[in-house]
Amino acid sequence: MPRVAAFLVTAVASASILAFGIFREEIGEVMFNAAML
Amino acid sequence: MGYLKRRIFQGMGAVLPNSYVQGFLTASLYQGSLKSVCSPLLNCYACPSALFSCPIGTLQHFMVTGNVPYYGIGTLSVIGATVGRMTCGTLCPFGFLQDLLYKFRAWKVSIPVWTRYFRYAVLVGLVFIIPYITHENWFSKLCPMGTLIGGLPWVTMNVNVRSMIRALFWVKIAMLLFFVTTSTMVKRPFCRAICPLGAISPLFTKSSFLQLGWNPDTCTRCGKCQKICPVDIRPDRNWTNPDCLRCLDCTRCPSLKLTTAFHRQPFGVPGASPAGVTVAGDLSGAAAR
To answer: How many domains does chain B have?
Structure first.
């Protein structure tokens, strides 16, 4: 049970951080940085 | 996962993210939409054939510009929460190179466990703090994978780049040669002691969806799992070891298997199998491969 809880907490936290990064439109900056090396 | 199957996956991990062959033909970088995706591999995005972004390069870029890299951290966290460190063991091209180099007949040595703490220092120092202070991507400047698939091809293809060679380039070459040489003697020295990706993904080892399961009822503690382990750990002593790459080489032994966080009893009822019944012989000769 602790493993399931740990996974669920980690998954939700990770998805939230990723969603926040997408919301801040960081994808465009990542693409621009990678293309302009 | 079978030995051959992992090698096929590693080959795909080396070829598919670097399949923009046109980059080598026209001496240009891929600039399409896939470059917005951070692949969870140490694969330089300055390589002419690279399709995806390097996650470490992305983290550094945001630190250089004084921003928190939510997208990069989020991508690595989602992958870590799903498969743990499996991408290191089954897809990373630099890990694949080190695995192959270790096959060479050379003097074999093991490195102490405490060297793993270097990679946390590299992550905090070279990826976060120093780029934030100096506004320079210091890990990328020194990364041996960047030298191998980014720096060397550009120096070979482009005269202008060649004219910009300074002392730092030779430091990069020396570091690449150091890791190529040590990889023939030590199992995955870069992954174990230096790689900042290898400092992030172990944070998810105990909480990832995919887990390694160990059966104490059938394990004879023969230690053959350590001989075939690419990072020299004993999963029977700690099957949630943060160094575990989830390469699944050790699952050739029936006492170890891939399971999920939702499986409470991956091997069935405890005590159902007498010790050593199914283990002996299954890993015979595996270390010699």
So the answer is: 2
Q: How many CA atoms are closer than 13 Å to the CA of B56, on its beta-carbon side?
A: 29
Residues B30 and B168 in one domain: yes
Q: Is B140 on the interface with A (CB under 8 A)?
A: no
Indicate yes or no: CB of B78 within 8 angstroms of CB of A22: no
Q: Residue B138: left (phi > 0), alpha (psi -120 to 50), or beta?
A: alpha
pLDDT exceeds cutoff 90 at B284: no
If asked whether residues B135 and B262 sit together in one domain, one would say no
* B130 and B170 belong to one structural domain: yes
B156 with B261, same domain? no
B218 and B187 inside one domain: no
Confidence at B281, pLDDT banded by 50, 70, 90: very low
Claim to verify: residue B89 and residue B232 sit in the same structural domain: no
Residue B83, classified by CB atoms within 10 Å of its CB into exposed (0-12), middle (13-18) or buried (19+), is buried
One-letter amino acid at B24 equals F
Which candidate from A3, A7, A22 shows the least CB-CB separation from B81?
A: A7
Containing domain of residue B228, as a range?
Answer: 211-289
End-to-end CA distance of chain B: 15
pLDDT above 90: percentage of residues in chain B: 86
Asked if residue B29 lies in contact with residue A35, where contact means CB atoms within 8 angstroms, the answer is: yes
> φ and ψ at B53, to 5 degrees?
-85, 150
Complex ipTM more than 0.85, yes or no: yes
Main-chain dihedrals φ then ψ at residue B246, nearest 5 degrees: 55, 35
Q: Which residues of B touch A25 (CB under 8 A)?
A: none
